[in-house]
């Protein structure tokens, strides 16, 4: 702020070009931030895909284990003829194997459930990140609109303002 001999104070106001440059710079920063957030979401999407594949593999393994148990039960029925001792021993062995298979199936189901929970959690986190990004973009757009309105009104005011000062005329005395 400077005071001239006229007694008026004038201040340097940024030009509309300066304001446009600043607004453009801020818009580029916002776009860079959005790109950054999208890159951060990419690993989450890949993890979700990996968990889906793991879930499918677990389900397939569980189905194979169930099929193996069904085959074992068929084998038990086929082995009933030779001798009662052999049948009892074979049955015990098959029951042990069946128990082990059931444990494997239970572990696979637990893994599938964990994968499902993890996938659901990641989907929720991804949705929250998308919502946050949308909110930030809307807030930024609102700020940009306000700034553009301010620039427009300042430009209009500057176009209409004239600071003309004339010295008093000797005729005014």
Notes on the protein architecture:
This protein has 2 helices and 2 strands; from the N terminus they run ββαα. α1 packs antiparallel against α2. A two-stranded antiparallel sheet has the order 1-2. With 173 residues, the chain is mainly α. The radius of gyration is 39 Å and the shape is rod-shaped. It has helices at 16-78, 84-160; strands at residues 2-3, 9-10. Helix content is 81%, strand content 2%. The two termini are 32 Å apart. The mean pLDDT is 82.
Work out the oligomeric state of the chains in this entry: single chain
Distance between the termini: 32 Å
Mean pLDDT rating:
82
Could you estimate the helical fraction of the residues in percent? over 70%
What class would the helix/strand composition place it in? mainly alpha
* Uncertain spans: none
Describe, in short, the structure shown:
The chain has two helices and two strands; from the N terminus they run ββαα.
Which key terms come to mind for this protein?
173 residues, mainly alpha, two-stranded antiparallel sheet, 2% strand, rod-shaped
Give the SSE map.
Elements: E1 2-3, E2 9-10, H1 16-78, H2 84-160
Antiparallel strand pairs: 1-2
Helix pairs in contact: 1-2
